[in-house]
Amino acid sequence: MRVLHVVQAYHPAVGGSEWLMRNFSERLVSRYGDEVTVFTTNVYKPEAFWRTRGPLMEPGVEVINGVTVRRFRIFGGLRLVRMLLAHVSRRLNLPYNDWLRTIQTGPLVFGMTRAIAESGADVILATAFPFLHMYYAVAGGRRSGIPVVLLGSIHTADKWGYDRRMMYRAIEQAAAYVALTEHEREHLVARGVRADKIAVIGGGVDMAAFETADGATVRARYGWGDAPVVGMVARQSQLKRFDVLIRAMAQVWETRPDARLLLAGARTSYSPQIERLVGALPPEQRRRVTVVSDFPEEEKPHLLAACDLIAHPSANESFGLALIEAWACGRPVVGVREGAVGSLVDEGRDGLLVEYLNPDAMARAILELLADPRRREALGRAGRRKVEERYTWEKVTARLRELYEAVVKAAPSRANRGQSAARADG
Questions:
Q1: Range of the domain at 265
Q2: In terms of domains, do 258 and 369 share one?
């Protein structure tokens, strides 16, 4: 099968969609022998689409672990104009403000729609909203008659990013939609998307990497000894709500001054604010915080294994990869009772859930687990079973491959596609 994946950024870029598409792409090549091409941009971080450019990769084509990767150059001009149009039109609720917001978000890539249409793929998968390349994929697929599958990774709590009529129209035009959680599926059905168009697949983990994780080495490196460690592993974004966890830990330390806090993730423009929040703590609390930035992906299992529990105060999630990775290490989680995370965690069975943006509730849940090692172990063990049953890369890739087969089988023949495309061009 000839597969085209369209994604805003790709390895060595770091992020949830980037990691998801890398694993799907490489496993389709290695396990199924598919011919997989990735169309992407030349950025390391998608915020380069609308903010400071930062370092960029060279556009061009390369092969990474059997996957052909074509990086397109982004257009970064008119940033201020795009931002003003997006925000003013949204505030005034003007017609087409969803388009102006999407153009502001980008990526603006000349020639990508045409390249998609001319790709010769059997099936196209594009991820993720609210980025503009999703619409390039739909337009390119419609032009050539190639079936398009959308994996939106919708963050249902983010109204600015995802409350866009054009997004639901694009989903209607696609052959199928991949939801990462039942919560996302229910969100789409409530907005008129046909239930039979949606496949709930989820994200995956490589269990072998977590089975050999060495938390003891990490503990020795940072001088934690046998102290209890609360971890948060997430991109250093304002949306992840590091501030809520830091405020919660200030309360935890009143009862458990021996506890340590690990904050680990890729740096963003918000990272200096995290440093200021940590720096504002009293000296004795500040010494209990370890910030690890831009670590290699291979280091993540060891960081998670070094923790006694993982706290995740964010509701701005399309799935919750950090939670299933914690479970893969047998660690319990504390999440929020909202959105994708609330639907992923079985409360009281593999983790605890608390009210969103409530540091008091987060502190109580953390203290509850720190005081009960047996419960931590039971919750972590149940989480690991859930991952083994539902969220290994082998299982989620097999579900995706079955979906590809179904949409390709249902699509018109290649000859008919060519005739349809010729009529459209005429």
A1: 207-389
A2: yes
224 and 306 share one domain = yes
The domain tally of the chain equals: 2
Dist. CA 103–CA 258, nearest whole Å: 49
Question: Taking the complete model, does pTM exceed 0.70, yes or no?
Answer: yes
Average pLDDT, the chain: 94
pLDDT band at 414 (very low <50, low <70, confident <90, very high): low
- Residues 154-170: b if buried by 16+ CB within 10 A, e if exposed: bbbbbeebbebebbbeb
The HSE-up count of residue 355 (CA atoms within 13 Å, CB side) is: 6
Name the band, by pLDDT with cuts 50, 70 and 90, for residue 178: very high
The backbone torsions φ and ψ at residue 232, rounded to the nearest 5 degrees and listed phi first, read -135, 120
Q: State in Å, rounded, how far the first CA of the chain is from the last one.
A: 29
pLDDT of residue 416: 55
- Same domain for 246 and 168? no
Contacts of 72 (CB under 8 A, 6+ apart): 39, 40, 41, 42, 59, 109, 111, 112, 115
Single-letter amino acid code for the residue at 183? H
**Do residue 22 and residue 170 come from a single domain?**
yes
Residues 199, 281 share a domain: no
